[in-house]
Amino acid sequence: MAKSPEKPVQKLVCENRKARHRYELLDKVEAGLMLTGSEVKACRLGRANLSDSYAKASRGELFLLNCHIGPYPAAGPFQHEPLRSRKLLLHRLQLDRLEGKLSEKGLTLVPLRIYFNARGRAKVELALARGKKTHDRRQEIAERESRRQMDRARKRSPKRFSGD
């Protein structure tokens, strides 16, 4: 009997939940994350934070800015700087395509999550995003609330049988 293909194991480090609320996500891409030794150890302990972070292209390279990776206690005097800019690793074609799209007005690259893939490599999932207006956010919240109310009403109503 053939074995079913198993999903690759991913260890989630941190997630940017506010990004889905603040932005309309258009396209997603996975990039490698260039880290120092103490940063890798701190990430494995879950000491990373993606709130208010973003990616920016400069001089033909892509960098992750404002990503906070806390200190690793056992590193001693060889600590890393928590808010330093970190280089993102992409194929040249992916980078060129993203730079072209980023030149459009109103688009930005927002990191959604940092994780370790099955091979133990640090990866960041980026999304090409457009900021939502306040009224769009309110409308989305209202739709979600109305869906919840309808689901509650369906659960409470008595079941009707078609065979009666």
Task: Describe the overall structure.
The chain has 164 residues and is α+β, with helices and mostly antiparallel strands. The chain has a single domain, classed as Small protein B (Small Protein B, Chain: A). The protein contains 4 helices and 9 strands. The protein has helices at residues 17-22, 37-44, 92-102, 134-156, and strands at residues 11-15, 23-33, 48-49, 54-58, 61-65, 68-69, 86-89, 107-116, 122-131. Strands 1-8-9-2-7-5-4 form a 7-stranded antiparallel β-sheet. A two-stranded antiparallel sheet has the order 3-6. A hairpin with a 5-residue loop joins strand 8 and strand 9. The chain is globular. It starts with 10 loop residues before the first strand and ends in an 8-residue tail after the last helix. The model has no long low-confidence stretch (mean pLDDT 85).
